[in-house]
Amino acid sequence: MKTSKNSLLSAATSLVHKQAPSASAIESSRNVHSMPACVERIVAFSRGMPFKRVTRSILSALLLLCGATAVETRAADLLMLQISESAQRYRIEASFLVDASLAVVHALLTDYEQLPKLSPSILESEVIKAPVPTQANARVRTRIRACVLIHCQTLQRVEDVQVGPRRLVAVIVPEQSDLAAGRTEWLLTPLQDSVRVDYRAQLEPGFQLFPLLGPALMKAGLERELRTLLGQLQARAASMWP
Predict the structure, then answer these.
(1) More confidently predicted of 25 and 101
(2) In what order do the strands lie in the sheet with 195-204?
(3) What is the pLDDT of residues 76-120, one digit of tens each?
(4) Other beta carbons less than 10 A from residue 214's beta carbon
(5) pLDDT in tens, 207-239
(6) Which range has the worst mean pLDDT, 91-95, 121-125, 147-151?
(7) Once rounded to an integer, what is the mean pLDDT over residues 143-166?
(8) Domain tally for the chain?
(9) Are residues 192 and 213 in the same domain?
């Protein structure tokens, strides 16, 4: 049985309302034209599946995710965000503005022990000693709570971080991490009253969840996490910037 986009969206919205989500999420899910990317993801997830297999929990979670994303977008001046996947390798590219000085943004990104304040998924963060000398300025270990729908894992990530005045690069140390590989780069460009941040990341988790929906759900989770981080970065910067 094939289901059209409109009928699928209508059914999904109906299911979400039956579960009484928050008022903000309901409002975001009603205005489907404000979140076309989320709607397209929901339809793409379900294409080719019997409708009875598109469970209430999955549809509800996806629509609530779209609603939450719509709210978080307003927290930061996001210029561009793209997430792609190929062979279980994910690439994230984003550009955004932070209303603060270069010194404030740089300080927040390099305050490693306070990283949990930038992301609720980071449970702990600390600087550790590398077993052998490296060219990195610091080796940072974080414990991360990663969730896709109702499935959550606590992962360890160890990164070697190289710090410059306007550029930060963090590379995952695979033998000490629960992730196979990864690299993150932050480019900071001071403007008149703000800082432009160009974020580039590559991630290879090394594990797969939900073979049918995994990549799409992972991309949605990465997007939500990044938007949350941007909002927290802006909020903390505002508290430090007169």
Answers:
(1) 101
(2) 77-86, 89-98, 195-204, 181-190, 167-172, 151-163, 138-148, 122-128
(3) 589 999 999 998 899 999 999 999 999 999 999 999 999 999 999
(4) 16
(5) 765 555 678 888 888 899 999 999 999 999 999
(6) 147-151
(7) 88
(8) 2
(9) yes
- Whether residues 91 and 154 share a domain: the answer is yes
91 plus 187 within the same structural domain: yes
Q: Is-contact 133 160, C-beta < 8 A?
A: no
Q: To the nearest whole percent, how much of the chain has pLDDT over 90?
A: 50
| Length of the chain (residues) | 242
Q: Please state, in angstroms and rounded to a whole number, the distance separating the CA atoms of residues 171 and 138.
A: 11
**Which residues, in sequence order, are bridge partners of residue 78?**
96
Inter-axis angle of helices 102-109 and 214-240, nearest 10: 130
**Domain span at 15:** 5-73
Asked if residue 86 and residue 28 are part of one domain, the reply reads no
**Residues 206, 219 within the same domain:** yes
Last residue of a domain, one of 53, 73, 93: 73
> How far apart are alpha carbons 176 and 128 in whole angstroms?
12
Whole-angstrom CA distances from 161 to 40, 99, 122, 193, 236 are 37, 25, 17, 27, 22
Non-local CB neighbours of 214 within 8 Å, separated by 6+ positions: 148, 208
Domain-terminating residue out of 26, 51, 73? 73
Residues 187 and 133 in one domain: yes
If you search the block for the tokens 């932050």, which residue do you land on? 186
